[in-house]
Specification:
The chain is an alpha/beta fold and 412 residues long. The chain has 25 helices and 8 strands. Strand 7, helix 24 and strand 8 form a beta-alpha-beta unit. The longest helix is centred in the middle third of the chain and has 20 residues. It starts with 12 loop residues before the first helix and ends with a helix.
Length: 412
């Protein structure tokens, strides 16, 4: 796609990157067929091709409007279009640039600004955990819409105490320890069973995705630098062999630190090294299957029953990791099925999307759960805290992280 940047954007990092991405797009429309919001709304401007055209117009000097902003807001950033695109258009990076440019010119209503501020300040805050604990204590009194955002209190179990020569870093995350603490402890126990010690750097916090995708990109970048600083002594000393992510939303973000900080002279090389070391938990598992299989009894596999698998967008599209979790669980003897229809589509969680766009989010969740429940599973598995909480808010079937299933089988 040919484009001529307006003078304001010529020779700027954002302008150069956006122009390179736009030139790859041939406007074929393959992406439209797999876009969740286009399927719901049927509006060209609520699909990737239309949004790309809107961003192109802004870069060429057109004045964005509130409508431009809303079309970009309605994008889930699921990156399904990237999996579909035959030309390798990096739509996720382009929409980040587009939102930044549009928000700089189009003021938001006061209520919208307040909600976005509350999300970007509240979710990564140390106050989130006590607030969630308070919400859980009165959960039975909450209206259904709010109850869906507050998972029932969970027993995390014990963190393993053995020391191992093999060590990996693990990011605790900002909301996961308060909402589903068992995911982190289950991860540590499964790795411990394979002779690997999970280490959490105390000063590492939110991966930066919440702020970055709420268009506080400077705030998100600051959190990324803070994590690099927290991890770097262990990385530089060669004390850890990988940085393991058990939340695919965090994983895709940390894997892009190298890209996002490539122009930062102080952090570019460190960020590239951090991204290189970062692995989704499922990427570690193939080498550990023999050890794990010997520890799982037939009775534990039978008790697990049939599990439905929902692959998060951040795993299958953002990280391009498809089929790995299902394959490793099947190798271990678990019964796992993926929905026969629309397993590639977003469940509607998409970080803070379910709060900012509740109607669209709910429609996507109902659509997703219809396909998953048609399998008549005993439980639903996923790999991201957002998807897990969102899906659980719409059904009575237990929804959990796949590592919790594995941990329970090992414990049994």
């Amino acid at each position: 796609m040919q484009t001529k940047l307006a003078p304001d954007y010529q020779n700027t990092p954002d302008g150069r990157e956006a122009e390179a991405i736009l030139r790859k797009c041939v406007h074929c429309g393959f992406c439209t067929a797999t876009c969740p919001t286009y399927q719901l709304l049927g509006d060209e401007l609520d699909g990737p091709r239309g949004r790309i055209y809107l961003i192109k117009q802004v870069l060429e000097g057109a004045e964005p409007t509130r409508k431009t902003q809303q079309h970009l807001d309605r994008c889930l950033t699921c990156r399904n279009c990237e999996s579909t695109c035959p030309s390798g258009v990096q739509y996720g990076h382009l929409v980040d640039i587009g939102r930044k440019l549009v928000d700089a010119k189009v003021p938001r209503p006061a209520g919208e600004q307040a909600l976005r501020w509350a999300l970007k300040e509240g979710l990564p805050s140390p106050l989130f955990a006590p607030a969630m604990k308070l919400g859980q204590s009165v959960r039975g009194l909450l209206p259904d819409s709010l109850k869906a955002k507050v998972p029932a209190r969970q027993d995390a179990g014990a963190w393993p105490t053995r020391s191992h020569t093999r060590k990996v870093l693990m990011l605790a995350g900002c909301v996961q320890p308060a909402m589903s603490p068992n995911i982190n402890t289950a991860t540590a126990r499964v790795l411990d069973a394979c002779g690997i010690q999970a280490v959490i750097a105390p000063k590492a916090g939110c991966c930066g995705a919440v702020r970055f995708h709420l268009n506080d990109q400077d705030g998100g970048i600051a959190q990324m630098r803070a994590n690099i600083d927290a991890w770097w002594p262990l990385v530089e000393a060669g004390a850890v062999e990988a940085i393991v992510m058990n939340a695919s939303g965090c994983g895709v973000t940390v894997k892009e630190y190298g890209h996002l900080l490539r122009h930062d002279s102080d952090y570019a090389d460190k960020a590239a090294r951090i991204s290189q070391l970062t692995k989704d938990l499922s990427e570690l598992m193939p080498a550990l299957l023999a050890q794990l299989k010997a520890k799982i009894s037939p009775q534990a596999l039978e008790a697990a029953g049939l599990q439905a698998w929902h692959p998060p967008c951040t795993l299958q599209h953002g990280q391009q990791l498809k089929g790995g979790v299902e394959a490793l669980l099947a190798t271990l003897g678990f019964q796992v099925k993926t929905a026969t229809h629309e397993s590639h589509l977003c469940c509607g969680s998409a970080g803070t999307y379910s709060v900012l766009n509740p109607d669209l989010s709910r429609q996507l969740r109902e659509r997703k759960l219809d396909h998953l429940q048609a399998l008549q599973p005993q439980g639903i598995l996923s790999a991201n805290i957002g998807c897990i909480t969102h899906l659980q808010g719409g059904c009575n079937i237990p929804v959990r992280h796949w590592v919790e299933l594995l941990d329970a089988a090992l414990s049994a």
